[in-house]
Design brief:
about 375 residues; alpha+beta; D-Maltodextrin-Binding Protein, domain 2; Alpha-Beta Plaits; 3 domains; 6-stranded mixed β-sheet; 5-stranded mixed β-sheet; 12 helices; 23 strands; about 35% strand; disordered N terminus
């Protein structure tokens, strides 16, 4: 089978995890081309997916009929399902891989090249779930994933908060004096800026941004770079045979990233336990419309935990008459809101029905159990 066969020849030294603990086999991250090959092999009515590699690949019959929505009990039970395949962005050793293991402890974590590849892998049934970052306590929102939530038809079925612990890694035998550059993810570099300044007292290494933290460690290991260090996890050091020069180098010890758990089907919300609901909407023209939109929650004592605005891709500029015969241009926005309530509560339904009265678009991205555990 061509797709399965293409995954058995790694182009990078990457490792996927079985049950998120032990290294099971070598494969490259799922790529955009892998998704496209699957689409070419299957159409919208296809009943087959492929499992295995090379000559051992076999076609699996899958049910393409409409499935029932997941319940929150299904989500709880799926955390212990040994066959669950969970996509994350990056390579083994990435913080996203650790978050996938925290969200689904017995999963098989599947690396993907890009955020969008993880979305597409779930839609194409290459994997069962995706776990992707949405915001960091220091770096703020991951805007790309907000845009992808709207572009794709996946549902938020849960969240997990992961404490990020950065380490400074280098090849064995390399010391601080030899390091001329530090590689890591664009968000990880500023998270460690003050600590790096203290560690390098005689010179200032150049900061270089790469796709992910573990990818920085992998790149240094593969190319045997003696003048470079990576900001990555301690697990990345173990995977790629690197030394830890310094641990916990993040400037703020309360460095937490919130990840979303995504699935093809929504869960059935229920009351009686802490739930969060995520929505996205756009508003009509007029004074005070945003105030009215937020007031529908305040008047019902619904707590908002997150508000994010993003430019509308379909209509980035809105042309309005200012009442004096002049036409003005304004940015047109989508508003993403998280609030602490379940869609099983009539209070939430009433709030959204009220919001529809002056919104031009409204979509519920998911109503799901809150992560109330310590990161």
């Amino acid at each position: 089978m061509y797709l399965a066969h293409s995954l058995q020849h790694p182009i990078r030294q990457t490792t996927t995890l079985h049950e998120c603990q032990s290294v099971s086999r070598r494969l490259r991250p799922i790529s955009v081309s892998s998704i496209e090959r699957l689409r070419q092999r299957t159409n919208a009515t296809s009943n087959f997916l492929f499992e295995g590699t090379g000559h051992n690949a076999r076609a699996l019959k899958i049910n393409v009929s409409v499935t029932r929505p997941l319940t929150s009990s299904d989500v709880d039970n799926s955390a212990n399902c040994p066959k669950l395949r969970v996509a994350y962005q990056g390579v083994p050793g990435a913080h996203s891989e650790a978050a996938a293991g925290k969200a689904y402890p017995n999963c098989e974590a599947i690396p993907c090249e890009f955020f969008e590849t993880a979305f597409e892998a779930v839609e194409a049934r290459l994997v069962d779930r995706a776990v992707l970052p949405i915001e960091n306590s220091l770096g703020g929102s991951i805007h790309r994933n907000y845009d992808l939530l709207l572009r794709h038809n996946l549902h938020i079925v849960g969240e997990v908060q992961h404490a990020v612990r950065h380490c400074l890694l280098a090849l064995p035998g390399v010391n601080f004096e030899e390091i001329n550059r530090v590689l890591s993810h664009p968000q990880a570099l500023p998270q460690c800026e003050h600590t790096l300044t203290k560690l390098f007292t005689t010179k200032v290494p150049v900061r270089e941004a790469v796709d992910d933290t573990a990818g920085a460690a992998q790149y240094i290991a593969i190319n045997k770079l003696q003048d470079a260090a990576a900001i990555a996890s301690s697990r990345a050091a173990d995977l790629y045979g690197m030394n830890i020069l310094a641990s916990d180098i993040q400037d703020d010890q309360d460095n937490v990233t919130r990840f979303l758990m995504l699935a093809r089907e929504p869960i059935i919300p229920r009351s009686g336990k802490p739930f969060k609901t995520s929505i996205v909407f756009s508003l009509e023209e007029g004074p005070g419309v945003l105030f009215k939109a937020l007031a529908v929650f305040a008047m019902r004592d619904i707590n908002l935990t997150k508000i994010e605005s993003r430019p509308s891709k379909k209509r980035p500029l809105r042309i309005c008459d200012d009442g004096n015969g002049m036409r003005s241009k304004y940015f047109d926005y989508l508003f993403y809101v998280d609030f602490e309530a379940s869609m099983a509560d009539s209070n939430s339904s009433n709030a959204l029905n009220h919001l529809k009265e002056f919104s031009t678009f409204l979509r519920v991205l998911g109503s799901y159990p809150m992560d109330v555990n310590q990161p």
